[in-house]
Write a structure and sequence with these properties.
This protein has about 150 residues and is α+β, with helices and mostly antiparallel strands. It is built from five helices and five strands, in the order ββαβββαααα. About 40% of the residues are buried.
Length: about 150
């Protein structure tokens, strides 16, 4: 048994210790907002927050996270999250949407750490998130918009 602090509550799951967190979240706990993309931590579709930091859930064993605070797209909240979600909708960022939960999780973590990022900051923070639809210009614009919303 593994006990995880997921989205603010203790969740006990029966999984092998080396099971990637992604599969525990999706298959054992039924939270499907976190997506499988590559399985090698290269695309960012599986991004969650672990102790506030964006983390690729496909490449970290669930057992290694006992005691850590894990937040998925289903429960991301706060000023930065609200601003990002509002900006994403306002600027119509999403095209196919598959990568967007990972994009949002990375953007929220960036703005929580740096509420006034410049283009280089955004590019660095988002570089591990791949969008097959190439909405990168809209993503960057939405992060700038979210930063403005956070100031208001």
């Amino acid at each position: 048994m593994i006990t995880l602090n997921l989205n603010g509550e203790a969740r006990r799951v029966e999984a092998e210790p080396d099971t990637p967190l992604l599969w525990v979240i999706r298959d054992e706990l039924g939270l499907t907002g976190t997506k499988f993309g590559c399985g090698m931590a290269l695309c960012g579709a599986c991004t969650v927050h672990v102790d506030g930091m964006p983390t690729r859930s496909c490449s970290i064993a669930a057992a290694d996270l006992e005691g850590a605070e894990i937040v998925t797209i289903e429960a991301v909240a706060g000023k930065a999250a609200t601003a990002v979600q509002t900006a994403w909708e306002k600027l119509d960022v999403v095209q196919c949407g598959y990568c967007q939960s990972g994009q949002v999780m990375s953007a929220v973590a960036l703005l929580a750490e740096n509420p006034k990022p410049n283009d280089d900051d955004i590019d660095a923070a988002m570089s591990g998130n791949v969008c097959r639809c190439a909405t990168y210009v809209r993503i960057r614009a939405a992060i700038h918009e979210a930063a403005k919303l956070m100031e208001a």
